[in-house]
Amino acid sequence: MVLNENDAICEMKKYFEGYGASKKLLRMMKYENDFFGGENRDDSEDILLIPGGDELMLKSKMYDIRRFIVNMDDGNEKTLLFYHYIRGFSVEKCSEMMNIGRTSAFRLKKKALLKDAEKMKEKRLKNKVA
């Protein structure tokens, strides 16, 4: 399946946003466990039947996303994506911290997402062949 530019950007956004979503879920699970006893509920529908299975799955997803960003070539693109998706800063705040204009930061984000979509495509093809 060939992705156009907008589809590729959306796919990478969803992938990277998985870090923040997983972080929130882990925080909610900790809250649930601390205040409601968490694991005392019936999880018969749970696919992962090992203790802490949900947490392991979420942390694994976060690790994969973080590793993907950290393994990027050093530069403004890596810095912007790290602070935006891993640290949770807005693109505007990132532009301020990086001392670049807002418009430049949004262009940089788009450029980085397109580049990463290409890397992801190569990675999938490589895994398919192996």
Structural overview:
By secondary structure, this protein is an all-alpha fold. The protein has one domain. The chain is 75% helix and 0% strand. It is built from five helices and no strands. The chain has helices spanning 5-36, 53-70, 76-86, 91-98, 102-129. Helix 4 (91-98) crosses helix 5 (102-129). The longest helix is centred in the N-terminal third of the chain and has 32 residues, at 5-36. The mean pLDDT is 85.
Overall form: globular
- Tell me, rounded to a whole number, the average pLDDT: 85
Rg is 18 Å
Number of domains: 1
Class per helix and strand makeup: mainly alpha
Count every beta strand, where a strand is a DSSP E run of 2 or more residues.
0
Q: Can you write the helix and strand succession as a string?
A: HHHHH
- Oligomeric organization of the protein chains: single chain
Largest sheet: none
| Helical content class | over 70%
* Fraction in beta strands: under 5%
